[in-house]
């Protein structure tokens, strides 16, 4: 029975559609799509491809929330609480990932496939601090972190394009401001900002600049700045992979 109690729940299409509708209602009232994308990524991005630890299992709701990289993400979990209460059939891990893909679509971005069935971790399965990237560091550090997840250079650049949404907040990361003119609209202008070396009033983290400074990553920045379709295609593939790190249904 213990196994059944912790078994992952695969939802029906109708169940997913009902939860999606409630997420859309949330975003109409509170345009919190960017922080949901960050929540999902910080839950999944702890994955270690070598030993299978971390990944998309909602462990972020326990001790990981106190890690500096996750500052502010308790707000996202709080915003999702009424939806989780109304739909207890969805695991927290699935809900975080669904909130992210629905948020991107709501912001005008591409439709990203979603599969349910992620199992929620217990508090004991939390990973140590330091698995998520440090925004003050450059390409070598990004490679250390993303290669550990099983990602490559192209996927690092594509995924960084999610910074077209949202902003940094002084009281969370110490950085401040949005990367693009409209932080609630999906697009490829984040890459144009990088090529311009930073536009007035817009943010570029050292880790964003690093993508253009690195000769292997720069061609992808140039490609995505010039071609929204190519960015979207590669983004969908990389995001789908990110959203399933450590999850095998
Ligand atoms: C490449 C390494 C990355 C670094 C160093 C990094 C760093 C940061 C930092 C410092 C913030 C500001 C947090 C705050 O002050 O509120 C942020 C926000 C954000 N990040 Fe990243 N990030 C990275 C990759 C990613 C990836 C892969 C995604 C998604 C696929 C992502 C999605 C977001 C979003 C959507 C926000 C805005 C959140 C909001 O508006 O509340 N980031 N990131």
Cα(first) to Cα(last) distance is 20 Å
CATH architecture classification name of the largest domain: Orthogonal Bundle
Compute the CA-based radius of gyration: 17 Å
Return the structural class. Answer: mainly alpha
Q: Low-confidence parts lasting 5 or more residues at pLDDT below 50?
A: 1-5
Largest sheet data = 2 strands, antiparallel
Strand order of the largest sheet: 1-2
Q: What level of helicity do the residues show? A: 40-55%
Give the integer mean of the pLDDT values: 96
Brief characterization of the structure:
With 249 residues, the protein is mainly α. It has helices at 2-6, 13-29, 33-44, 73-86, 92-106, 139-149, 153-160, 189-195, 206-213, 218-226, 228-243; strands at residues 167-168, 177-178. It folds into 2 domains: 2-130, Peroxidase, domain 1; 139-239, Peroxidase, domain 2 (Orthogonal Bundle).
Can you give a write-up of this model?
The protein is an all-alpha fold and 249 residues long. It folds into two domains: 2-130, Orthogonal Bundle (Peroxidase, domain 1); 139-239, Orthogonal Bundle (Peroxidase, domain 2). The protein is 49% helix and 2% strand. It has a two-stranded antiparallel sheet with strand order 1-2. The chain is globular, with a radius of gyration of 17 Å. It starts with a helix and ends in a 6-residue tail after the last helix. The model is unreliable at 1-5 (pLDDT under 50). Protoporphyrin IX containing FE binds next to helix 3, helix 7 and strand 1.
